[in-house]
Design a protein that fits this description.
This protein is of the alpha+beta class. It has 15 helices and 23 strands. It has helices at about 30-45, 55-65, 80-90, 110-115, 130-180, 225-245, 250-260, 340, 355-360, 365-380, 425-430, 430-440, 450-470, 480-495, 545-555, and strands at about 5, 25-30, 45-50, 70-75, 100-105, 120-125, 190-195, 200-205, 215-220, 270-275, 280-290, 295, 300-305, 325, 335, 345, 350, 390-395, 415-420, 500-510, 515-525, 555-560, 565-574. The strands form 5 sheets. It has a 6-stranded mixed sheet with strand order 1-3-2-4-5-6, sandwiched between helices. A 5-stranded antiparallel sheet has the order 7-18-15-12-13. α6 (about 225-245) packs antiparallel against α7. The chain is elongated, with a radius of gyration of 40 Å. The chain starts with a strand and ends with a strand. The model is unreliable at about 1-20, about 400-405 and about 540-545 (pLDDT under 50).
């Protein structure tokens, strides 16, 4: 028969609305006198006591309401103390409930069996209240420590589960924003080895509307989630601005403005960017804080060290987005990488620039594969200290730039657009992305965006460079001439006192999948000799003169009027 004794000895009384939480002790002993004696001793020490007569009752009482401590006699009917301790331990699972055996035995074998059966300590008869209290206090301290640890362990497990879910959510966002829109090409390969779940390095690749590609490799200060958040700030800007046809130098200025206004002080993004044209004949480079950009091929290998500040360090006009232009040939290889690669360290040995360049030199067939394998051997069994990124790009021409695009969906049956840019506006902005975006707002361009970009780019550049500024395209017959031509262009535009370019677009839909877009561009200049630029595309092996033949290839009609300062083209589909 169960019995319970309540006592408050050695426990401070409750005051006001406070309540006292008593420790609960379960005693199992078949001897009535021993049971009463233990009950009295525990009660005097301030415990709430439940006393039962055998091991089976002790197991049942534990199942009903687990106590803070259990005192078991060894020899009891129905179920002895050893069996009861084993049964209670099986039912306690992860919870720790101290068990102290009450025994008259003093031999080592019996005491060892008490411990082996699940006991934590033992108390020999006759009982000593001082020793009992010392043993019980010690066991309850262990019990409290175990409970605290269990609570912390459970809280940590819940926290880890929440963090894992947040990481999965964040990784989905990063994949959607940063990786999914990327331009995928067999000519661009990447090696990405993040040092943690999130990568502070970023690789962005996007196809240019006029053909060719923009590539950006960045390394944010630090690594992990904090550094990776910076990639979200720039990825969407990079992709959307490239899609609109904005020059990479202008994109870098906007990326810098965004990071400077958003990132905390001390955080920035070292980066390198390149723009390759559709014919893979010219590469524009910008390096702001990354290791040397390497270009392999031709008569000599070239390196381009950092000449600019990283993104997010300075704002406004202090940031320099000017890019270096250089001629390249098909199959030239370009390598961009973060310092995590050349500074990878095992003990006192650093991977180093020389080791990287040696593998690029000897691994022309698959340099990236050779570097990946070598790096794996070098870092075997060693934890990375920083993110590692390497991008290899082969300079190959874009052969699909002038293919006819599929049908363009119509938003409205017809519309007209008129824009006029004076010389001050032409100095401050590029009219091409402005015009292309305005057309896109009126018409769902779909795959026609690339063709329209090419058409508008040619028409606008002819109007500005040949019409307003009076430049001679013949100066672009050599790589040095290219640089001289665009230097002169910038100088004439900066000093021009007057001039304008007017654009008129007229769209008419023929049916749901077809329509006609008429584009008229007029400038206030003296015009140019457009007839001499009609050389066939395939016969043109020079460095310029492809623009007007390209217009004829893409458009239904191209008509120059007067001296060449007024042109009308018709782009049709469906």
């Amino acid at each position: 028969m169960f019995s319970t004794t309540l006592a408050r000895a050695d426990v401070l009384p409750a005051t006001g609305s406070e309540s006292v939480s008593l420790r609960r002790v379960l005693i199992a002993d078949d001897d009535r006198v021993s049971r009463m004696l233990l009950t009295s001793m525990f009660a005097q020490q301030g415990y709430l006591v439940q006393a039962v007569e055998d091991g089976a009752q002790a197991v049942a009482a534990f199942e009903a309401s687990p106590p803070d401590l259990i005192a078991l006699d060894v020899n009891m009917p129905v179920m002895d103390g050893y069996a009861a301790a084993q049964a209670i331990r099986a039912r306690a699972c992860a919870r720790f409930v101290p068990i102290i055996f009450i025994t008259a035995a003093t031999d080592e074998a019996s005491l060892a069996r008490c411990i082996a059966s699940g006991g934590d300590d033992f108390l020999s008869k006759p009982y000593n209240s001082v020793i009992l209290r010392a043993k019980v206090d010690a066991l309850l301290r262990i019990h409290d420590l175990y409970e605290t640890t269990s609570v912390q362990r459970d809280a940590l497990a819940r926290y880890q589960l929440r963090v894992d879910r947040e990481h999965e959510f964040a990784q989905h966002i990063f994949h959607t924003v940063v990786e999914q829109p990327a331009y995928l090409s067999p000519n661009i390969r990447r090696l990405l080895l993040p040092s943690s779940a999130f990568n502070g390095d970023v690789v962005l690749t996007a196809a240019r509307p006029a053909g060719g590609v923009h590539v950006f490799v960045g390394d944010f200060t630090g690594h992990g989630l904090g550094a990776a958040i910076g990639t979200l700030l720039i990825a969407d800007l990079f992709y959307s601005m490239t899609k609109k046809g904005i020059a990479l130098g202008e994109i870098l200025i906007e990326l810098n403005r965004k990071l400077k206004s958003t990132l905390p002080i001390g955080m920035f993004c070292a980066g390198a960017a390149l723009s390759l044209d559709a014919q893979a004949s010219r590469l524009c480079l910008w390096n702001g804080g990354l290791p040397d950009v390497l270009v392999y091929g031709g008569a000599e290998n070239r390196r381009y060290p950092s000449q600019h500040l990283p993104l997010g360090v300075v704002g406004g006009h202090a940031f320099d987005g000017c890019m270096e232009s250089l001629p390249v040939a098909p199959n030239d290889r370009v390598y961009l990488y973060t310092d995590g690669l050349i500074e990878a360290q095992v003990g006192v040995v650093i991977y180093g620039q020389e080791r990287l360049e040696a593998l690029i030199e000897t691994g022309a067939g698959d340099a990236l594969g050779d570097i990946t394998a070598d790096l794996g051997v070098f870092l075997a069994g060693v934890e990375q200290a920083d993110d590692i990124t390497l991008v290899e790009m082969k300079c190959m021409p874009d052969t699909g730039a002038i293919e006819r695009a599929p049908a363009m969906l119509s938003r409205t049956s017809e519309w007209k657009l008129r824009l006029r840019f004076d010389i001050g506006q032409l100095r401050q902005l590029d009219p091409l992305p402005v015009l292309l975006q305005a057309i896109a707002e009126l018409q769902n361009l779909g795959a026609h965006r690339e063709n329209l970009y090419l058409i508008l780019a040619e028409l606008l550049s002819n109007a500005v460079e040949y019409g307003l500024l009076g430049l001679d395209s013949g100066r672009k017959n050599s790589p040095d001439g290219f640089l001289s031509y665009y230097t002169e262009r910038a100088a004439r535009l900066a000093h021009a006192e007057s001039g304008w370019v007017a654009v008129e677009c007229d769209y008419v839909s023929h049916h749901v999948n077809g329509g006609i877009l008429t584009i008229c561009i007029e400038d206030s200049g003296a015009g140019f000799e457009h007839e001499r630029m009609l050389q066939d595309l395939q016969e043109n092996q020079g460095l310029h003169g492809r623009g007007i033949p390209l217009l004829h290839a893409l458009c239904r009609s191209v008509c120059y009027q007067g001296c060449g300062n007024h042109v009308e083209v018709v782009y049709a589909w469906g």
